[in-house]
Design a protein that fits this description.
Helicase, Ruva Protein, domain 3, 54% helix, Rossmann fold, alpha/beta, 424 residues, six-stranded mixed sheet, 23 helices, binds adenosine-5'-triphosphate, 10% strand, binds magnesium ion, three-stranded antiparallel sheet
Length: 424
C-alpha cells in the first residue's frame, strides 16, 4: 500500500512538473513513464500528460487506484471521467519528500530531481538522475516512431529492406562474453571513448576518427563485436546488407543509400554497420550494370561525408575478402581491425564461455588443442552438435567423448564441404 501510494504520487507529481516546465525534455521523463505515454505518431510524449486510473494499473499493476487516491489528502478523482488530479501541489511535494523511499525515487527521476534541487533545495542532483535514466534512443518505441516517419515518405520500404535497425534493449550479445585479443579490445575501447567524448574531439578538431573496417574469416566475431558495442554504448545499431542492393530496383538504390545514411544521422549517436563490404569490389569489373556502379559511388561518397564527430555515427564495415578491396576502398577507413581465427588460448576461452552452463566431465583444454583452424562460430556448432546428440538419448551431462566425436564429425563434414576448388 505504501509503495503504491508512493508510485501514484510520483507519477502525478512528475506529470504536473513536466507539464509546466518547458525546459524539461522528453528524455527527462523516467523511462517507464516515457514509454507508457509515448505517442508513436509524434515521436515524443505530448504535453499535457493526463493520468487515468488505468495508467496506474498498467504502469504499476495497482489494482485499486481509486482507493489509493482517496487515501492521499492532495489527490482527487475528477467526478466525471477517471482523471486523477492534484489538489494541493505543495502538500504533495512535501509529503513525497518526507517518505522513507521518497528521496531514493527522486534521485532516479530527472523531472523530480530538477524540481526538488531547484525549488526545495533538497540534496539531489538533476545531472546525476539524468545519467541514471535510460535515454529514449534505447527503446523500440523511439525507433518505431522514426520508422513511421520515414515510411510516410515515398518508397521508404526499400530503405527499411536495406537497413535493419536494432535498439540496445534488443541486443543480447555482450562484450564480456566475446573473447577478443588485446588489439581488438583496445580498438573497441577507443571507439567507446570517442563516442563518449565527441564534444571534446570536435573542440580540438580531431575529426578523422570513427570509420573502422573489420577484416577476418567467417564466424570470427565481427558482427557480434559491432553489436555488442551498440549494447555497451546504449546506442541503436543500423545494419546494412549490401547484397540487398542487387535485389532492389537499381535506379532507386543510390537514393536509398543516401537515405540510410540520413536515417543513421537521425538516430545519432548510433553504429552504422555495413556487412559484406567486399560487395563494392564486384562492380569494378567493366561489364557491370551502370546503375550498380552509381550505387557504389554513392555509397563511397556517403562514407566520405559521414563523421563520428560531426554526426555521431560510428561506421563499421566488415568483410571476409579483404583481398578484393582496392586502395580507394581501404583509404576510407582510419582503422583496420583484424579478426583472425582464434589461437588455442582463445579457443579455450570461447569454449569455456559456451560450455559454462553445461554439466558433465570434460577437458576443454584438450578440445581447444584439437580444433586448430576453427572459428568461434565453428566451436559453437561443435558444442551444439554434442549437446543435441546427447539429448537424443535424453542425456543432459556431456562427456569428453561426446565432444571428441562432435569434432570428428565436424571435420568430416568440412572436408566434404570444402573440397579443394579452383580458387587461387
Ligand atoms: N571471439 C569470439 N568469442 C566468442 N564468441 C565468438 C567469437 N567469434 C565468434 N563467436 C561466436 O560465433 C558466432 C558468429 O559470430 P559472428 O556472426 O560475429 O561472426 P562474423 O565474423 O560476423 O562472421 P561472418 O563473416 O560470417 O559474418 C556468434 O554466435 C559468436 O558469439
Ligand atoms: Mg557477420
Amino acid at each position: 500500500m505504501d509503495d503504491e501510494k508512493l508510485k501514484t504520487t510520483e507519477l502525478v507529481l512528475t506529470a504536473e512538473i513536466y507539464n509546466n516546465t518547458g525546459e524539461l525534455q522528453v528524455d527527462d521523463l523516467p523511462s517507464d513513464i516515457r514509454k507508457h505515454y509515448w505517442d508513436n505518431k509524434e515521436g515524443t510524449v505530448k504535453r499535457p500528460i493526463n493520468i487515468k486510473a488505468k495508467d496506474l494499473t498498467e504502469l504499476y499493476n495497482i489494482k485499486n487506484p481509486v482507493e489509493i487516491a482517496k487515501s492521499l489528502p492532495f489527490l482527487v478523482y475528477e467526478e466525471f471521467g477517471t482523471q486523477l488530479k492534484l489538489t494541493v501541489f505543495d502538500l504533495g511535494v512535501k509529503w513525497f519528500a518526507k517518505q522513507e523511499q521518497g528521496s531514493e525515487h527522486i534521485k532516479h527521476n530527472p523531472v523530480l530531481a530538477h524540481f526538488y534541487e531547484k525549488s526545495q533545495s533538497l540534496d539531489v542532483s538533476y545531472e546525476e538522475a539524468s545519467k541514471k535514466n535510460e535515454p529514449k534512443e534505447v527503446s523500440r518505441q523511439w525507433i518505431d516512431s522514426l520508422i513511421l516517419k520515414i515510411s510516410g515518405e515515398k518508397d521508404s520500404e526499400d530503405v527499411l529492406k536495406l537497413a535493419h535497425i536494432m535498439v540496445p534493449d534488443e541486443i543480447e550479445q555482450t562484450l564480456d562474453r566475446l573473447v577478443l585479443n588485446q588489439d581488438q579490445k583496445d580498438e573497441v575501447e577507443k571507439m567507446v571513448k570517442a563516442i563518449q567524448f565527441r564534444e571534446y574531439l570536435t573542440k580540438i578538431g580531431l575529426i578523422e576518427i570513427g570509420k573502422l573496417l573489420f577484416v577476418g574469416p567467417p564466424g570470427t566475431g565481427k558482427t557480434s563485436t559491432a553489436k555488442a558495442m551498440s549494447g555497451k554504448l546504449k546506442v541503436p545499431f543500423v545494419e546494412v546488407k549490401l547484397s540487398m542492393i542487387t535485389d532492389q530496383y537499381l535506379g532507386e538504390t543510390a537514393k536509398n543509400i543516401d537515405r540510410v545514411f540520413e536515417l543513421a544521422k537521425g538516430l545519432s549517436p548510433c553504429i552504422l554497420f555495413i556487412d559484406e563490404f567486399d560487395f563494392i569490389a564486384k562492380t569494378r569489373s567493366s561489364d557491370e550494370h551502370a546503375a550498380l556502379k552509381r550505387a557504389v559511388n554513392t555509397l563511397l561518397k556517403a562514407i566520405d561525408n559521414i563523421s563520428l564527430v560531426k554526426h555521431g555515427v560510428l561506421l563499421i564495415c566488415a568483410t571476409n575478402h579483404p583481398q578484393l578491396l582496392d586502395s580507394a576502398a581501404w583509404r576510407r577507413f582510419d582503422d583496420i581491425v583484424d579478426f583472425p581465427l582464434p589461437d588455442e588460448e582463445m579457443r579455450q576461452k570461447i569454449l569455456e564461455f559456451v560450455m559454462s552452463e553445461i554439466d558433465g566431465t570434460f577437458n576443454i583444454a584438450e578440445i581447444a588443442s584439437m580444433t586448430d583452424g576453427y572459428s568461434g562460430s565453428d566451436l559453437r556448432m561443435v558444442i551444439r552438435e554434442a549437446v543435441l546428440n546427447a539429448l537424443m538419448v535424453d542425456r543432459f551431462a556431456l562427456a569428453q567423448e561426446d565432444l571428441v566425436r562432435a569434432v570428428g564429425e565436424f571435420n568430416k563434414r568440412n572436408a566434404f564441404n570444402y573440397m579443394p576448388k579452383d580458387e587461387t
